[in-house]
Amino acid sequence: MTTLMKRFVSDESGATAIEYGLLATLIAVALITAATSVGTNISAMFTAVAEKIGAGTPAAGG
């Protein structure tokens, strides 16, 4: 019984799996945050380019 208890206390495989899970979650959150930021900046850039292109062409039907 004491051998079983010592083995249970010294077993760290569950803790390692939890650490890997937390690390994967942190990486996923960082990637989502970066993708959102880049997407917002790219959207603003396309909007600015579209406005400049639209401002340089005459209105249709006028």
Give a topology summary:
Blueprint (H helix, E strand, L loop, with lengths): L1 H9 L2 H43 L7
Structural summary, described in words:
This protein has 62 residues and is mostly helical. The protein contains two helices and no strands.
Mean pLDDT: 85
Distance between the termini: 92 Å
Strand content: under 5%
- Report the uncertain regions: none
Reported for the largest beta sheet, the result is: none
| Secondary structure category | mainly alpha
Q: Over all CA atoms, what is the radius of gyration? A: 28 Å
Shape: rod-shaped
* Count of DSSP strands: 0
- SS summary, helix count: 2
Order of helices and strands: HH
Helix content: over 70%
Keywords:
62 residues; rod-shaped; mainly alpha; single chain
